[in-house]
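SEQUENCE-TO-STRUCTURE ENTRY
===========================
Question of interest: how does this chain fold, as expressed in backbone structure tokens?
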Amino acid sequence: MAVAPLIPGTTDQVRQDRILLIWIGVGALVTLLRIDLIPWINDEPRLILRALQANAAGHPAPDGLPGSLGIRYFPVIIWFYQLLLKCSYDILTIAFCKILFCYTLFSAAIFSLRRFLRCRAIFLALLFVSPPLWFTHRILWDNCFLVPLVPWVILAAAWFVTRPGWGRLLAWLIPAVLAIYIHPQVLFLQLPSLVVMVLYRKRWFFASLRRFWAVSGLGTLLLLPFLVRLLNSHFTRGSSHRHAAPWFAGLTGWRMFCSRDFAAMLPDFPRVVVPDFPWLRWFVQPLHWLSIYFAAGLFGLGVIWLIREGVRLHRRRQLGCRQAFPVQFHRGTIMLWIAGGTVVLQSLFFMVTHVHDFSHYFNGTWIAYYLIMLSGFAMLSERLWMGACSVYTAVTTCLLFAVMLRIACCGGAVSFQYGPVLGDQLRIARQVARYRTGNYRWNGQTPASFNFSHALDTLVKLEWLRRQTPPTAQTPPLIFTVTFRTPRTPWDAWQTLSVQSAVNTNKDRSAPNRP
């Protein structure tokens, strides 16, 4: 089957490796910068709290967090945090280790992907400065661990197709099974991967009944706990019809490579970046819309490429070709068939479940959408795709710095999706921990920017453990009132970083701002 390559390749592999390493370094710098500015809202403190409780009980956590569709996830990520809590109770240290682990795994996967496709580094540079991917690397949520893991799944599947063997099958099976136990949304990627592997290499799978039953038995054995839990789950609808995703929601995975979702996460963004500098919107707003047009346009071109090659395949089969899936093919073509099947399953998921199309539903399938976007470059001339890719990467880089500036200046956002940053809440928790009382409650007049009191409770418990000062009983209980002040300029944010929060009690109205 004569097909166009996924993306234009190059023969200078060493130079492209060096360029990609530079981008990996840039991504590491922005990802590990200012850990205290990460979000700390709902599920992140719940994961840490369950890990604390399991460590106190002296055994691994038996269950994970419940999902929106009635599935209780496996506690793989809680076990990960249990190990980190064995080493330190400092939440900033835990966050740094998690972010470093995920980013290292992600960088290694993208580096291996470039070597496998033998493409130019500029095509993958965008992944290290994409605002949504930057955000998912930094958050302590469970399904964010899928972001660095799914490239290994699709890479191992294509690697197996090029040269089948037991070792390469295990290289696909291990990350695939681990990803399922983290979050089942990755099934949208794994099922097409398995189908493509079998279609391309069915002679290897069915060479003997012994091999067939060995592969089937191994897969069933590894997935048995997941299947048992899935059958025992009580499924529910994800949301009301009023908030259901549109029918085309499965085609919007390109949002992971632009700043589209930050308009809802950070109120008034990109119209407001720094409140006292309104002129910045004239620079950021055009870039915001340009990134959306770039991502959607490239994805549309990639879909056209995929449909065109699918029609060619169908015609080949109609002509009676004995081998519709030949041995000689471009490596990227394998990934494109997997990506196409992933998008179809993701679209069916939104249509059937009626869940809201939150961006985190694409954490397990983002690589499929990016590969389809890359195939859009095959529709362009060399001069055009080189210029478009360079401009697109520059635009997302500028938007990433705009997002970072907005979060640093405003200390998060008065929104459900981000809330006050971890550093501000940690300063409050350290002040509360100084009173060494387990008998306290939060004032009911907490501002709207603080949505979940258990987030502060978890930080207070961590501070008690870190300082090795267990709480004492106190009557009557202390009442803490929390206020978050929003600075208006970047200089104000840095100068008043240690006094952005205030803690008042019914005993001491002049509680110090510094721990």
Q: What stands out?
A: The chain is about 60% helix and 5% strand. The CA atoms of residues 121 and 341 lie 26 Å apart. The chain has two domains: 13-410, 422-504.
